[in-house]
Amino acid sequence: MTATDPALTALAQGWCALSLLHGRIEAHIERALQARHDLSVREYSLLDVLSRQHDGDGGHLQMKQVADAVVLSQSATTRLVTRLEDRGLLTRYLCPTDRRGIYTNVTEAGLKLLDEARPTNDSALREALDAAAENAELAPLVRVVESLNVESLNMPA
What we know:
By secondary structure, the chain is mainly alpha-helical. The protein is built from six helices and two strands.
């Protein structure tokens, strides 16, 4: 393929549209979460991912799994965990079977904030998707997002 290849151009245009949709959605949700709950999208995502952990075999996520789930580097994820821990929303403790492992749990305050923020996140997502659906280039992507079966995706619990 060359830079002028129509298939490459279509692929690049599709990627730009997907990136634009993601950026608009994330910015809209960010504004809503910040205004109502003093949370960033990443903080909300981290609380959400960690709240779905459970005790027992395979119940806790390793930091790399958490980083992958919130789409951050491991070092950025560690800094994010520290910020939320400083706010009393998370706690960390050593893994009882592997002293090198560190688990992170959402505190009661973190769960309460997450429960309060979830409707804000959901309504902001709906608003952003509805607005994007009015754009002819983004509407097909919105339809795909709305039709996704998330249970079939390989996402951490």
